């Protein structure tokens, strides 16, 4: 199984700065305890840059993200994270979606 990330997140994950991700999924696609390949392209095994073990899964409204969670997302602060999230996900019609919060660690 694969988890996709933007290229700008690769270094942050490898340096263990980014240890959370938020996803707008209808159903959760990962399970606690499982290990997933982190890639920048879905069907390109060469884009694999890490193996991630899922530590915890939760749900929250996007705007409930805390300053400390934003830093664990790899951003300087909450405002920078929210701006990046909207740029990546692009749904301006819903500025506060219900998101999956996935905490992970790099393994191997």
TL;DR?
The protein has 108 residues and is an alpha+beta fold.
Q: Determine Rg (CA atoms, Å).
A: 13 Å
Strand order of the largest sheet: 1-3-4-5-2
| CATH homology superfamily | Sulfate adenylyltransferase
Order of H and E elements: EHEEEHHE
- CATH classification class: Alpha Beta
Helicity level: 10-25%
What integer is the average pLDDT? 95
Q: Main β-sheet, in a few words?
A: 5 strands, mixed
Q: Would you count the extended β strands for me?
A: 5
What's the shape?
globular
End-to-end span in angstroms?
16 Å
CATH third-tier fold name: Sulfate adenylyltransferase
Number of helices: 3
**Oligomeric state of this protein:** single chain
Measured by DSSP, the beta-strand proportion falls in 25-35%
Question: Which structural category do the helix and sheet elements fall into?
Answer: alpha+beta
Low-confidence stretches: none
Q: Quickly count the domains.
A: 1
CATH structural architecture: Roll
Structure notes:
Helix content is 21%, strand content 33%. The chain has 108 residues and is an alpha+beta fold. It has one domain (2-107): Sulfate adenylyltransferase. A 5-stranded mixed beta sheet has the order 1-3-4-5-2. The relative contact order is 0.27. The model has no long low-confidence stretch (mean pLDDT 95).
């Amino acid at each position: 199984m694969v988890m996709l990330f933007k290229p700008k997140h690769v270094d942050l994950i490898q340096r263990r700065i980014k240890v959370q991700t938020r996803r707008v999924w209808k159903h959760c696609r990962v399970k606690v305890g499982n290990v997933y390949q982190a890639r920048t392209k879905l069907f390109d095994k060469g884009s694999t840059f890490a193996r991630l073990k899922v530590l915890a899964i939760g749900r929250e409204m996007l705007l409930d993200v805390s300053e400390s969670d934003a830093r664990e997302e790899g951003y300087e602060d909450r405002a920078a994270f929210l701006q990046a999230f909207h740029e990546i996900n692009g749904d301006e019609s819903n500025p506060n979606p219900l998101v999956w919060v996935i905490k992970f660690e790099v393994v191997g």
